[in-house]
């Protein structure tokens, strides 16, 4: 799927905004873009919308603002991911956006730690 010039410009704009938070990078993924800091994906861009990573510690902040989870359809089923819309006021204030990004990065780090703790041990490595 070809990515439009407008979407590439939007992604570049978001990455520029997030530089206040840290050396953020984007990577093309499944027709959208992942947003990464130090190799950890804490956001995704679909269309012209930034979604940030959530977990049990920060999901309610998004729900309290009436923000929606990123979702997609596959084989007639609806799937929701653990990424929620970014509040509009954060999109207009780089300092506020960096607070939301920091919380999303924390969720990404907790998810990575949780996955790391569940890895199966090698049978030969006892």
Description:
The chain is globular. The chain has helices at 5-18, 59-64, 88-91, 94-117; strands at 25-29, 32-37, 40-46, 49-53, 69-74, 77-85. A six-stranded antiparallel sheet has the order 1-2-3-4-6-5. Helix content is 38%, strand content 30%. The chain has a single domain, classed as YgaC/TfoX-N like chaperone (Yope Regulator, Chain: A, 2-Layer Sandwich). The chain has four helices and six strands; from the N terminus they run αββββαββαα. The protein has 126 residues and is α+β, with helices and mostly antiparallel strands.
Summarize the entry for a quick read:
This protein has helices spanning 5-18, 59-64, 88-91, 94-117; strands spanning 25-29, 32-37, 40-46, 49-53, 69-74, 77-85.
Question: What distinguishing features does this structure have?
Answer:
Yope Regulator, Chain: A; alpha+beta; disordered C terminus; 4 helices; globular; six-stranded antiparallel beta sheet; 126 residues
Largest sheet: 6 strands, antiparallel
Helix run count? 4
Structural class: alpha+beta
Mean pLDDT: 89
Count of DSSP strands: 6
What is the assigned CATH homologous superfamily?
YgaC/TfoX-N like chaperone
Give the low-confidence spans. 117-126
Helix content: 25-40%
Please trace the helix and strand order, writing H or E for each element: HEEEEHEEHH
CATH architecture: 2-Layer Sandwich
Strand order of the largest sheet: 1-2-3-4-6-5
CATH topology-level name: Yope Regulator, Chain: A
């Amino acid at each position: 799927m070809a990515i439009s010039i407008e979407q590439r410009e939007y992604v570049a704009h978001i990455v520029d905004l997030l530089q206040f938070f840290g050396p953020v990078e984007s990577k093309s993924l499944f027709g959208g873009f992942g947003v990464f800091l130090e190799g950890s994906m804490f956001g995704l861009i679909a269309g012209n919308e930034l979604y940030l990573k959530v977990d049990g510690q920060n999901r309610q902040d998004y729900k309290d603002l009436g923000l929606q989870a990123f979702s997609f359809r596959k084989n007639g089923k609806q799937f929701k991911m653990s990424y929620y819309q970014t509040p509009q006021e954060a999109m207009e204030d780089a300092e506020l956006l960096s607070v939301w990004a920091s919380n999303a990065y924390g969720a990404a780090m907790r998810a990575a730690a949780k996955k790391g703790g569940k890895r199966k041990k090698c049978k030969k490595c006892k």
